[in-house]
Amino acid sequence: LMMLGAYTTWGMQQLLPGQPGLALILAIPAGFMVAALAGIAIERGVIQFLKGRPLETLLATFGISLILQQLVRTVISPLNRTVITPEWMSGSLVINDALSLTLNRMVVLGFALVVFAALMLIMRRTRLGLDVRAVTQNRAMARSMGIRATRVDIMTFALGSGVAGLAGVALSQLTNVGPNLGQNYIIDSFMVVVFGGVGNLWGTLVAGLSLGIINQVLEPWAGAVLAKIIVLVFIILFIQKRPRGLFPQKGRAAEG
Fold first, then answer.
1. Degrees to nearest 5, angle at CA 153 with 243 and 55
2. Which of 37, 45, 74, 73 is nearest to 61 (CA)?
3. pTM of the full structure
4. What pLDDT does 34 receive?
5. Are 14 and 144 contacting, i.e. CB atoms less than 8 angstroms apart?
6. Count of CB atoms situated within 10 Å of the CB of 1
7. How far is CA 137 from the centre of its chain?
8. Hey, how many other C-beta atoms are within 10 angstroms of the C-beta on 24?
9. pLDDT digits (tens, 9 = 90+) for 200-255
10. Cα three-residue angle 27-58-44, rounded to 5 degrees
């Protein structure tokens, strides 16, 4: 789904040659919609038949990811595509001789925080967010209160898939767009969820920033592979002490 968002950005630039800034801005809603529609199709076509079977769901979604990758290779190309970075995202901010921050990464970081704030607003201030939290915590009780759980499932999967599409739009400004773009982030995503705590947005934010900073600090002297191993060992040791993560769910729903 991240890959689809990234390819949507590339496609918008093909439709608007010479206007990378406008294409990038238009790719934000387009990437969300493309990934959200794909997510709805996956939920209706596969996920709804595998409720309560996490292992089968994991295997099925992994298979779907391989199908999507091969589809992109067949329809577009197996080669990576370059997305042009707008001028206002080019260059770097020099702090001192040893530290400079590239503008594209700073913009992506700010974009991620905006998406995070929007998700928090949706989950805390809208009827959809209330329904999602209710169905997640106690599906049977939510249905008995008149909440259409199936509709909530569809909207939740669409929202999550759309956010993955937005991640792809952002990543298109940091790396080449290719069929394997999303694979590099699967393990990192699992580590963030385990470290931060399942079902908690604040946990996702804190865990994502913490693990990212730790990894970047370790890479210069340990190397990319060893840095990943050190972070993984740290998480394994951490979950021995706090198996539910930094921000565990509380209440009766967490005990069920």
1. 45
2. 45
3. 0.88
4. 96
5. no
6. 26
7. 22
8. 25
9. 888 889 999 988 888 888 888 888 788 888 888 888 888 888 888 887 766 555 55
10. 60
Q: Which two tokens stand for residue 25?
A: 């801005």
Provide the strand spans (E) within 106-184.
Answer: none
What's the N-to-C CA distance of the chain in angstroms?
Answer: 31
Gap between the Cα atoms of 217 and 68, Å rounded = 34
Could you tell me if 170 and 104 are in contact, meaning their C-beta atoms sit under 8 angstroms apart? no
Residue owning tokens 């608007």: 16
8 Å CB contact between 231 and 215: yes
- Three-state DSSP string of 180-198: CHHHHHHHHHHHHHHHHCC
Q: Are 31 and 4 in contact (CB under 8 A)?
A: yes
- Token couple for 123: 């989950």
Of 31-40, 141-150, 169-178, the range with the highest mean pLDDT is 31-40
Tokens of 251: 């209440």
* Alpha-carbon torsion (57, 38, 62, 105), positive or negative: negative
CA distance 234 to 94: 32
CA 204 to chain centre: 10
* Contact partners, residue 43, CB within 8 Å, separation at least 6: 153, 154, 157, 158
Q: Please state the domain extents for the chain.
A: 183-256
Residue whose C-alpha is closest to residue 161's, from 5, 30, 11, 1: 1
Return the exposure string of 186-208: e unless at least 16 CB atoms fall within 10 Å of the residue's CB, then b. eeeeebbbbbbbebbbebbbbbb
